[in-house]
Design a protein that fits this description.
The complex is a heterodimer of chains A (737) and B (471). By secondary structure, chain A is an alpha+beta fold. Chain A is built from 25 helices and 30 strands. Chain A has a six-stranded mixed beta sheet with strand order 1-7-8-11-13-12. The chains are: A alpha+beta (737), B alpha/beta (471). At the A-B interface, strand 9, strand 16, helix 12, helix 18 and helix 19 of A face strand 3, strand 4, helix 2, strand 5 and strand 7 of B. Chain B: It catalyses: small RNA 3'-end nucleotide + S-adenosyl-L-methionine = small RNA 3'-end 2'-O-methylnucleotide + S-adenosyl-L-homocysteine + H(+).
Chain lengths: 737, 471
């Protein structure tokens, strides 16, 4: 009406807009009813609209977000009263003569299918109704419960699939009881959303986009799940496993489909362990995630499909691990935003993901191994000293400014970064990583490629590491069967042979031979003409620098034959079973690693380090002298880390490490002649912000990935982090930093 | 870095007149990346040596690149450019000895056309292709060559030889001709250039090469390398020098991927043809080329009316861009453009975009995956994408023994992670078919040998019919 008045001044619109609008509204209303909404308010006149004084919003019935638990969710009971009592008792619930309650105020949540097939449906109903009435429990309906209600409603239903047992048992009870049951079942809500939306309970589970909604389709899904319309070899409908594709944040707990044991899959869990078929009755404790089961006293009903029948089940792999065999491309391509604990949301740009997809697909190892990629590391700010590009003072200053007064200086090994995952045996790897037949571990590079082209060498080295871990009793001490170590593998020439030959040795060869001839020609000139002296001196200096360049890279090359000559220097214990070790400080890491290395000093190398109190001038001075000494002998330099693995300042997490590279080492980065004053002065202008930002985001992603892995989250969630690091590495940042 | 030119023709110090550089002075000339010094280490009537010494600024070389500079690939600080004779040396020759190169000599014009005994020394010259290339370039022009190749690192003799040579070239020749040879052939040896090549470069080459390049037996290589990587320019220049047919052959040779041992008979065309035929035979309407590469199969598929929709997928965005350019998709009429789509994707990930196809081809794809990653491909294709028909081809490893000069156990391509015998392939495919309810047939592709089978092998999977019903 009001619209009509508005349009009155524009008659050309009046013609079709409003009738169109009206007809669409009417069609929409009809649809609403078809979708199964129970409450539809229609306002047909302007007066009706004007009569409204206030809109009062009722939360949906399924909204129990304020209920934070703790809760105990109980799977399909099917009239197994004795097992139910046993389970409640086991969990600490007690019967006070009227109803069951938990002394700590825990509440039960019944996931539906209370009735049919089993020996004592009425008693189960009585117990559940009593607990719900007393406010000690919630209950969602199962398909069997709803079918029983329809019988109670007097509808014509087939007494199949165990309904007959319920009918027979209920017929022995009073009509009043039957009416109570009918009313109880009628009042059940399709599903509940608990604890700020973190937990959803529905009989057959629920997809993310249906959670907290109310419609006929939602109720249908909650009761029956999703079926494909096909029939399997046992004459039962083929169910579409929505949980395989589930990516929602809420944990979904459900029953409906009997499984041999309750297993997590993508943060969902089926807790119907087929009690009535002779399996067990299972409860999930929330938020603890503990599982409590009681065995069925006997087989009450023969299942149509053998319990635990899974087509082509992969041996010994968990549901999640089987599901993780194939990742979905949609989870990594396009623009991705990854939530991390250390740096909030990290955005991965589409163009970087494109590059990472190619590298990941063509060169990376099995993504099940890739639980962590090491972050890039920023150098210190450019030194203010005339002769140096990098010097310890700037790194110390960085941490001091950030409010950290205790740092750890570690010698920087000149090798190649390598992530080492090693398990006690192949079985341990299968259990933790879901990988079969790929050995007792893996060694991979910063970009997720196999470190060794030759599998036998890799496994031989891992066997040595494993022996050292066993010898020291690492597995027992750390209560684990595997470990992930962040390491440096030497010599550099073992991995970077091609780079060394095509770039470093080539430049060295060209420079030394050319400059030898140049200085000879200039010497001849200078003999004849004193004006040639200046040029001769200049090129003699260059010749000298070329020689220093050659000895700089030669430091990091030595021959390797099989394992002979290989040195592995671990510097972080990243993770082990259910545990992320970034909570421990770097001194702890260094000391623990020292003990492992002591078991096989021929191959394993403990990293020399020192702890520096930045407020103590003598400490700082000694650390600087230490660096001078290390780099004077041709060492690469050192890495300065805050004492604690993860340190924050007012603005957030700070750089986890800063490298200070030696003056000679930097020749192989900035070229033989970089130390010439006219070169050094120009090289000193270099921007670190991009590199620092990248180091920070990669660090946050790396830790997040490991955290998710140790939390046993789906591989998809771990892979997103690792993929993100790889994508970031494709960003254009000065490669010399 | 250093070029010396020595003559012993009496009076040798005439070289100063010819080069327009006074033997008593040390002179400098600016070149793009720094300076060149000109000086005479030795001057007498018996022997005179002129030296051209590069003084390249290594930091400037990196720092000046950018939008305004030359955005070439030599951006690393650790770089041989300051130490070798390269296109920088050519530029320095043109700058420092321009009069001599143009055949001018103010004071002694009669010397310009006189062939004199010259010895040229280059410290150091980078030669892609080794001494053979060096000889192929200079010997036909009459030079005597004394070349010393340098080890990469004397401390590690097993690293082998570097591509750097100290080279002495001797010939009796005019100075102008000598300089034009050096100007063209130094960058040809190096096979790299410090600046972008444009059309002018063709004229420069033709001018500097006039009188000797036409008859040089290695002229194809000289032109191709001089106009590095600029295929159309190379073609343009060649077509001036050669008949048109030859030019086309040359271009094709440039295009051919390196390190492929398979015979030139277009085995790949046979595979593509076979894959297309199988998809046609299966009656497929929506088809996908998984690992489409540069689109050769897509082109074949587009020509068939039976295929209503064609999807090309590859993991490499670079290759997809090439495919896109070759197919000229944006220039297609609407109806045709709607029939085809190119996407970046990977066969080791499950991909919803691949669902609902009648047919899919994986031509020479599986052997590019590490064997442990095959399991993911199997599930992504056969369990999730589930096309009605899947055509898979892969090399037949048994056939490799028939290749000439093919070491035993070597793969046909650098990126092949495995090559299977017929037995291995059939075992893999049969297991797969059983697991995912497909029927499978095997066919040979390409020339067949009674003993070792065909060059390539193909498996055609078809989804069992009762698995298709959906009600």
């Amino acid at each position: 009406m009001r619209a009509a008045q508005r349009f009155a001044c524009r008659p050309q619109l009046w013609g079709h807009v409003i009738p169109h609008h009206v007809s669409q509204l009417k069609r929409g209303l009809r649809k609403l009813r078809e979708e199964g909404f129970r409450h539809i308010f229609e306002l047909r006149t302007p007066e009706e609209v004007d009569a409204i004084t206030e809109i009062h919003r009722d939360p949906l019935y399924n909204n129990k977000k304020q209920e934070t638990g703790p809760l105990d969710i109980i799977g399909d009971i099917h009239g197994c009263y004795d097992e139910l009592v046993e389970l409640l008792t086991e969990m600490g619930y007690t019967y006070d003569g009227e109803t069951w309650a938990h002394p700590q105020g825990r509440k039960a949540v019944f996931a539906g299918d209370l009735v049919d097939r089993g020996p004592n449906t009425p008693e189960v109903l009585k117990l559940v109704m009593g607990m719900v009435a007393a406010g000690n429990a919630y209950c969602v309906p199962g398909n069997h419960d709803i079918k029983l209600k329809r019988w109670l409603d007097g509808k014509n239903v087939q007494p199949t699939h165990g309904l007959q047992e319920s009918i027979d048992q209920l017929n022995l009870k009073t009509p009043e009881f039957r009416e109570q049951v009918r009313k109880f079942l009628e009042g059940l809500i399709s599903h509940y959303v608990f604890d700020e939306g973190k937990l959803v309970v529905a009989h057959a589970g629920l997809k993310e986009n249906m959670q907290g909604r109310g419609s006929g389709a939602v109720r249908e899904f909650c009761l029956y799940g999703e079926t494909t319309g096909e029939i399997d070899e046992f004459g039962l409908p083929v169910r579409h496993n929505w949980a395989e594709e589930y990516k929602g944040k809420a944990m979904v707990v459900y029953g409906h489909t009997p499984v041999p044991r309750a297993q997590w899959l993508n943060n969902t869990i089926d807790i119907d362990t087929g009690c009535v078929f002779g399996g067990s009755l299972t409860a999930l404790r929330y938020p603890e995630r503990g599982i409590v089961s009681v065995k069925a006293a006997r087989v009450y009903c023969e299942p149509a499909r053998p319990l635990g029948y899974v087509k082509d089940a992969a041996e010994n792999l968990s549901l999640q691990q089987q599901n993780d065999d194939v990742l979905d491309i949609a989870d990594v391509t396009g623009k991705q935003i990854v939530e991390t604990a250390l740096a909030n949301n990290v955005t991965i740009r589409e163009e970087n993901a494109v590059a990472a997809l190619e590298v990941m697909s063509r060169f990376a190892i099995n993504p099940k191994w890739l639980i962590y990629l090491p972050p890039t590391m920023s150098p210190s700010k450019t030194s203010v000293m005339e002769d140096y590009l990098e010097f310890p003072a700037e790194a110390f200053e960085y941490y001091k400014t950030a409010g950290v007064n205790r740092v750890v200086c570690q010698e920087k090994h000149m090798g190649s970064r390598a992530v080492v995952i090693v398990g006690r045996n192949e079985e341990a790897i299968g259990k933790a990583f879901g990988i079969k037949g790929e050995g007792i571990g893996t060694i991979y590079t910063r970009t997720g490629r196999a470190f060794f082209n030759d599998k036998a060498t890799e496994q031989a080295l891992l066997a040595r590491v494993n022996d050292a871990l066993i010898a020291w009793g690492f597995y027992e001490r750390f209560n684990t069967d595997w470990v992930c170590l962040d390491t440096e593998l030497m010599p550099w020439s073992a991995k970077a042979q091609a780079l060394l030959q095509t770039q470093y040795a080539a430049v060295g060869a060209a420079a030394t031979h050319a400059l030898a001839d140049v200085t000879a020609a200039l010497a001849q000139l200078a003999q004849r003409d004193a004006n040639g002296e200046a040029l001769l001196a200049e090129y003699r200096e260059r010749e000298n620098e070329a020689k220093q360049f050659v000895s700089a890279y030669q430091q990091y090359c030595w021959p390797v034959n099989g394992l002979d000559g290989i040195k592995l220097a671990p510097f972080h214990i990243m993770a082990s079973e259910s545990k992320l070790w970034t909570s421990e400080n770097h001194e702890w890491h260094m000391e623990e690693i020292k003990k492992i290395c002591a078991a096989d000093p021929q191959i394993l190398m403990a990293t020399p380090y020192r702890i520096v109190d930045l407020d103590n001038a003598e400490d700082v001075q000694q650390a600087t002298a230490w660096w001078m000494n290390l780099t004077g002998k041709g060492g690469e330099g050192m890495v300065v880390k805050p004492y604690n693995f993860i340190e924050r300042d007012g603005k957030g997490t700070i750089q986890p490490a800063i490298k200070i590279r030696g003056r000679e080492y930097l020749r192989i980065i900035y070229g033989p002649e970089y130390t010439a004053p006219e070169n050094l002065i120009r090289l000193k202008s270099r921007g670190l912000n991009a590199k620092r930002g990248m180091a920070m985001r990669e660090f946050a992603l790396g830790i997040e990935g490991l955290q998710r892995f140790t939390n046993k989250e789906p591989l998809r969630r771990v892979h997103q982090c690792v993929f993100g690091i790889l994508a970031m590495e494709s960003e254009a940042v000065d490669p010399r930093l | 870095m250093l070029l010396t030119i020595t003559t012993s023709r009496f009076p040798a110090d005439n070289l100063g007149y010819l080069l327009h550089k006074h033997p008593a002075k040390i002179q400098s000339a600016d070149i793009s990346a720094g300076k060149a010094h000109i000086f005479y280490p030795e001057v007498s009537a018996e022997k005179c040596t002129a030296a051209l010494l590069l003084d390249i600024d290594p930091v400037g070389l990196v720092r000046s690149s950018g939008p305004k500079g030359n955005d070439f690939a030599l951006e690393q600080y650790v770089n041989d450019r300051p130490y070798v004779a390269s296109s920088f040396m050519s530029a320095a020759i043109a700058k420092a000895y321009s009069s001599a190169m143009n055949g001018r000599c103010k004071d002694k014009p009669e010397l310009v056309d006189v062939a004199m005994p010259f010895t040229v020394k280059l410290s150091v010259l980078s030669v892609r292709g080794g001494e053979a290339v060096l000889r192929a370039l200079f010997e036909p022009l009459g030079y005597t060559i004394n070349a010393q190749q340098h080890q990469l690192d004397p401390l590690y003799p097993d690293w082998g030889q570097s591509r750097y040579f100290t080279v002495e070239l001797s010939h009796t020749i005019t100075l102008q001709r000598l300089l034009s040879h050096l100007y063209v052939l130094i960058p040809v040896c190096d096979n790299d250039k410090h600046y972008w090549i444009n059309a002018e470069e063709v004229e420069k080459l033709l001018a500097k090469g006039s009188g000797w390049l036409e008859a040089h037996p290695a002229k194809e290589m000289i032109v191709r390398r001089y106009l590095k990587d600029q295929r159309s320019l190379a073609g343009q220049a060649l077509s001036v020098l050669l008949s048109k047919d030859e030019a086309e052959v040359e271009e094709a040779a440039v295009e051919a991927p390196e390190e492929v041992t398979e015979p030139k008979v277009r085995i790949h065309d046979l595979r593509l043809q076979a894959a297309k035929d199988e998809l046609l035979l299966a009656g497929a309407k929506r088809v996908a080329d998984l690992g489409c590469g540069e689109c050769r199969l897509l082109k074949l598929l587009l020509a068939e009316r039976q295929f209503e929709f064609i999807l090309g997928m590859d993991v490499s965005i670079r290759v997809l861009q090439i495919a896109n350019n070759r197919l000229k998709i944006e220039r297609m009429p609407d109806k045709q453009r709607e029939r085809i789509q190119l996407i970046q994707g990977s066969l080791t990930y499950r991909d919803k975009r691949l669902e609902g196809f009648d047919g899919a081809a994986l031509v020479e794809v599986i052997e590019h995956l590490d064997p442990p990653r095959l399991a993911a491909l199997e599930r992504a294709v056969f369990e999730y994408a589930k096309p009605g028909t899947v055509v898979v081809t892969t090399p037949n490893a048994e056939y490799n023994v028939l290749f000439e000069n093919h070491p035993e156990g070597k793969m046909r391509h650098n990126d092949h992670r495995f090559e299977w015998t017929r037995k291995e392939f059939e075992a893999w495919a049969t297991d797969l078919a059983v697991k995912y309810n497909y029927n499978v047939l095997f066919k040979a592709v390409g020339e067949e040998d009674a003993e070792v089978g065909a060059l390539s092998q193909m498996a055609v999977f078809s989804l069992q019919k009762d698995n298709l019903k959906n009600d």
